[in-house]
Amino acid sequence: MKAEARKRLWFPGVDAALDRVAGACTVCAALRPAPPHAPLAPWPLPPHPNSKNSTTDKSPAELVFGRSLRSRLDLLNPNAPSSSTSTDLTQTVARKQSLQAKHFRGVLRPEFKDNDLVWITKNTNNNKVNWLEGIITKKIGNLMYSVYVPQLNGEVTRHMDQIRKRLSSPISSATGEDQDWDPDVIPDVASPATTHPEPATHREGEGEATTVLEPAAATPPGTPETDH
Q1: What is the pTM of this model?
Q2: Each residue of 27-58: pLDDT tens digit?
Q3: Fewest beta carbons within 10 Å, which of 32, 167, 187, 210?
Q4: Cross-referenced PANTHER family, in alphabetical order (predicted)?
Q5: Which residues of the chain form beta strands (DSSP E)?
């Protein structure tokens, strides 16, 4: 009676007022010992055959057939039914993590070793993504690597997300375009102590005193050249 009254009207102290009215009602006092018997209300049907019941956590199809009803969409992406019917949160989380590690490789990151052949991104001023051949020299911290680039004859630093594995292949010849780097992104070059093969020097004569031709020093801009 209180619930029906609160559906229509509510005010502070409505329960106490209803108790006073019920205590003074002679009809209510006569019918209270023998309430009428009513049939049990059936459990309402779920909106969908695969809808789970809040008590059993199973759908009607699972209770009858032991599995969920499949549709045409399930035929396009069939999945094996889970053998575990437990609602334990720990098992559910473990199963989801296992699927994530299988399909998305979890949070595993690629690892590179010294002297690994790799491709690295070429950072230029344009929005194009270009790749250069490189060789891993050392690891810097947890995510950074120092890479020797033969086309530049120097080392650059790259994040592991900017490095890809490379199969054995001949090193491409350096071109003027490959030297166009963004100095704000790659400011570092190889130090003189870096142990890498130096460019081959031209030697003249055989059986004579060996003469090594060194490159001429660059002339500063604006300096007039003098005849020797």
Answers
A1: 0.32
A2: 777 776 766 677 777 777 777 777 877 667 77
A3: 167
A4: PROTEIN CBG26694, PROTEIN NYNRIN-LIKE
A5: 117-122, 130-140, 144-149, 154-159, 163-165, 203-204, 211-212
